[in-house]
Predict the structure.
Amino acid sequence: MNVPHVNTGTAWASPRRLQALAIALAVTVLALFPLVSDNAYYQNMAIMAFLLAVMASGWNIISGYTGYISLGQSAFLGIGAYTTALLSIHLGWSPLLAAPVGGLTSAAAALLLGLVGRRTRGIAFVIVSFAFLEFAALLVSNWSSVTKGNHGLALPLPSWDRDLLNIPFYYALLVLLVLTVWGSWAIRRSTFGIGLLAIRDDESKADGVGVRTDRYKMLAFAASALPIGIAGGVYGYYISFLEPAAMFDIVIAMQILLAAHLGGVGTLWGPVLGAFLLEPLNQFTNQTLSGPDAGSWRMIMYGTLLAVIVLFLPRGIITESRAWLSRRRGTAPRARAGVRLTDVPATLPAPSLPRPAGELPSGEPLLRVTGLGKAFGGVKAVDDCSFTVREGSVTGLIGPNGSGKTTVFNLLDGGLGADSGTIELAGRRIDRLPRWRRAHSGLARTFQATRVFPRLTALENLAVPSRSYSARGLRAGVFTGEEAERAQEWLEFVGMGAYSHHLAGELSYGQQKLIELAQALVLEPRLLLLDEPAAGINPALVERISDIVRKLNAAGTTVVIVEHNMPLVLSLCDHIHVLARGRVIASGPPREIERDPAVLDAYLGDNQAAMAGTTSGANR
Amino acid sequence: MGQLAQALILGVLVGGVYALASSGMNLIFGVMKVANLAQGAMLILSSYLTYSLWEATGLDPLVLVLLTTPSLLLVGWVTYYLVVERSRTTDASMALVTSFGLALVTKGVVALVWGNDLHSVSPGYANRSFAVLGMKLPQAQVYATMVAAVVLVALYVLLTRTWLGRSIRATATSSEGARLIGIDVRRTWAASYAIGIAAAGAGGSLLSVLYPFMPSTSDHWIGLLLSIIVLGGMGSLPGSVVGALLIAVAESLTTTYVSPDWATAVPYVAIIAVLVVRPQGLLGARLREDMSRA
C-alpha cells in the first residue's frame, strides 16, 4: 500500500536538492549582476522582468490557485503607484518607503473588489474584475483635484547618487520578487493554500466540508494584490511620471495573463518563468519596432502569442514539461487497473477530536427536523417535513424518485436555505448557520453524483476538510505531521491507501465514491449523511461500503442513508423514514416499514391515495 | 422638463443601437457560454470597413450595413474554425483568454491598416436634426436606430422562426441534448458565432455614423457590451434590449445632469451594482452559482 516511490538516484542529486540549488544559483546571479555589469539596457530589462514576475505571481494566487480569473489585476499596480506618489508628494516620504503603504492600499481595494464580487463566480467575476479596472482608471482620471487627472503626476527624482543609476530599483524589485515567490510557496503548502485549490475545483463542495470559503477568498484577494501594489509604488518611482491610461492599462493585465499562461497557471514558478521569457521579447520588440506602427505590431504579437499558448501549450511550459518528463521516466502514478482495494481495517483511525462533552439528555434525538419546507417556484419539493434521528442509529430515508430526499439533505447541510421549519443538531439550531459552520458542528455528507476535487490527489482531497477555522490553522503545513498521517489512515480505512498520490479526477467512479466517503470521515462527523452510497457501483463495493458504515456506527457515528437499494437499507438501518411528496408518510423499524401498506402504495400505487390515507399518521 | 424629455428620448434612441451592438455578444454567450471579449474589436473593424466603403463608393453608411454584415459574418465563420473552436476543448477560461487574444490581434490589424487617429463617417445629414416638440433629435441617430430595430427584428425572426434558429436555441439550452436529437452541434456553434460577429458588423456600421472612433475605442465598447448583457441577463435577446435601453438612458441622464466625463463610468457602475444586487440580470439565467449541484 505504499506510494510508488520516485526513484531519484543518489541523495545529493535528488530533484528537490537540484531545484534548491538552481534557485540559490539564480538568485545569486541576479543579485550579483548589477555589481559586475552597468549595462543600463539589461538592467532595465531585468527590472521590468522582476515587475512582471511579481505581478504574475500575485495574479497566480487569486487566478491560478483559487481559479478566479482576474482581468483587472493591473488596477492594483496603479493604486499602489498613485498612493505612493501622493504620499511622497504631500508628506515628503521617500517613495521606496511609501511603496509598502501602496501595497496595503491595493490590498484594501482588493478586499473591496472581493466584497463586491462575493457572489460572483466564473465569467461573472471576470467581468467584475474588468469593470473594476476600468472604473478605477476613470476614477483616477476624473478625480483631478488629487490625481491631476490626465495631465499626470510627477514624482520626485531619486535622491541617491547618480552613479548608482537604477541599482536601488533593481534590488527593491528583486527583494520583492523573492518575497512574493516565497509567500506564494508558503501559501501553496499551507492549509490555506489547499483550501484555495479546493475552491478552484468545487467551491460549494469546499464550503460543505468546512472550509470558510468567504474568508479564504478575501485573504487570497488581499494576498494577490499586496505585492502588485508594492511593485506599483516602486515602478511609479522608477518611471517617475504617472498617468491613468498607462497605470491602469488593460495591456498590462494582458501581459500578466500571458506570462502566467506561458509558464504555467497555478504553478509556483510558472508565472516567474513566463515573465522572464516574455520581458526580453518585450524589450526586443521595443527596440526593433519603432515608429507609429510599433504598438499595433506588439498588440498583434501578444494576441497571437496568447492564442498560440492556449491552443498548443494550454497548461504552460512547466506543467507540460513536467508531464512529459514523468511520462518519459515512467514515474507518474501508474494506473492500477485490476489492483484490489485493500481490506477495510478492523478498527477506525483513532479520533483526533474530543467527543462532544455534553451527552444528549436521554430521549433527545441527535437530529430533529421540524416542519421543514422548500419550494422551487411552484413545486414544493419538501413540504412540512418532520422527523428525528436517534444518536447511534443508522437511519434510512427512502421514498420514490422526486419525493424530496436529496433536497432534505441539501437543506440539512446548508447547500439550500429552507423556506420554513427548523433543524436541530444535538439540541442546537443549525438551520440558519452557513454551510461551513454546519460542518464544524459535526455534520458531513456525500453526494449522489459524487463530488471530489478532481485536480487534487486523493490525499490532498482529504487534507481539505476542516472542523475549525483559525489564523494559525491556516498557516499550518498540509503535508507534514499528524494531519497527513491521519489523512493517510482514513484513506487506508476505506481501502484506498494505494491511491494517495493519484489525481482524484482520474479515478474510477467507485473509487471516487470511496474518496468522497473518506473525505466526509476526516471531519469525524457526529452525523453522517450518505446520499445513495450504493448507486452505480458493483456488489463487492456495495458490500465494502456497508461494512464501513457498520464499523463507523459501531464506533459511535450516527448515519442517515438515502438509498434505493432496498436489501441494503433493510440490512443496515435500524430505523426508516419514508418520504413521499416532500413529507414523511411513515416511520418505523425495517420490519414494519416493509409491510406498511402506505409505503407500498407510495412506491407502487397511486400517490394521492397514499397521501390521503396517511396524512394523519405522518407527522408523529 | 424639455431637457429631461430630450435626454430620455435620446437615451432610448441610443439604446436601440446599443441593443443591436450587444445582441451578437449575447447570442454568443447564450449558445457557447463564453464572453467573447473580441466583440468590441469586431465593432471597430466594422466601423473602419464602413469608413473605407463610404469613402470609396459614396454610398450612405447606413445602407452599407448590407455589406458589412456579410463581411463580418465571414470573418466570424473563419475565426471560429481557425481559432475559437480549438480553444473550446480545454479549460473554460481558455476560450475567454483566446477571445482576449483575438481582440488584441483585431485591434492591432485595424490600427495597422487605418492608423491610430480618430476617424468619423459623416454623411450629409450628420449635422442636421429633426425638431420635434421643441426637442432636437439628430437625424443620424434617428435613422441609425430605425436600421437597428429592423436588424434586431430580423435577428429575432431568425432565432424564433427558422430551423437554424431552433437548433441554435436547442444547442444553447443543452448541447448534449441537441446532439442526441441529431443537430450538428459543431455547425450550430459556428453559425451562432458567425451570426454574433455579423451582428457586430451591423452595429459597427451604425456606430460609425454616431461617434468618432479609433482602435482603442474598442475597449470602451467591450465595457459597454459587458454591462448591457450583465444588466439584461446573459444569453437573453430581449434582456439585451432592456439592458441597452437602461444603460443608454442612464448615460444620457448622466451627461445632461452630471457631466460627460462621468457618463463613461455608467456601464462599470452598472456592472458592479447589478452583480451585487441581482446577479442574474433583469431577464435571464442565473449567474450566481451558489446553488448545490446535487
User: Anything to note?
Assistant: Residues 213-239 of chain A form the longest helix (27 residues). The mean pLDDT of chain A is 84. Chain A touches chain B through 55 residues (CB under 8 Å). The first strand of chain A starts at residue 153 and ends at 154.
